[in-house]
Design goal:
- With 267 residues, the protein is mainly alpha-helical.
- The chain has one domain.
- The protein is 89% helix and 0% strand.
- Helix 2 packs antiparallel against helix 3 and helix 2 runs antiparallel to helix 6.
Amino acid sequence: MIKEEKTRLYIQAGLLLLAAVLSFTLLKSFATSRAFTADKVEYLDQKRNTIMEITAASTAASVAITVLPGDAGSPIADKLADVSTYSLIVLCAIFLEKYLLSITGIAAFQILVPTACIILLINLFLRKERWLKLGVRMVLLAAVVFTVIPVSVGVSRTIEKTYENSIQETIDSAKESTQEIQENAKDQNLLDKFLNTVGGGVSSVLKNFEGILNRFIEAIAVLIVTSAVIPILVMIFFIWLVKAILQSITDIPLDPLKKLGIYHTQE
């Protein structure tokens, strides 16, 4: 009987060591590989390009308004210039998500999972309940760290699909309106003729840019939500989920684990 128990103990220890090695090598390599991160990185790069286009288009539109006669366009020009500030927030969030894709894989499979395996291995010999629960907590933490960014990227991608065409139309509209003013602003006579051909003159042009500003604000709001708010909400959800699971683990009797040989108490 003692021999069988020792054999089972050695097998469990070997499996835990094997799991630690596989996590440190194969799983870590997969989590940080191009095959796993390619689609997520591509999505984040597309979002980065979109926010750069918004920044460039809003800045150009702000400059274009300043060449119009009078100061009526100054408030709109200032608001368009402010879009760049909000764009910077989105850009920082995008780069943070992009870098975390690789960092979280390393943290989960090169640090947390091997550490959990070592803790569980120690538990085989110390036979303490707190070591078992600590090892389980480490595994759950690794799962949260690894999945939080991919899940938030997936949710963000789903939401942005609804607004994708609208955002691009706003950028194209801003570019077109800005280009018209820039081309005619080279000569004052050309600018006057252009304004005369537009029904309502300057007020009509400003109204058009006001609409563009509103759509830019809407686009920035969507990008802030998908780039900053959703990752935070996903992380909060996972933290709540882990707490709920850990609470259930605390309440679970250890007798079934004893029968499986996963947990032992000292006699």
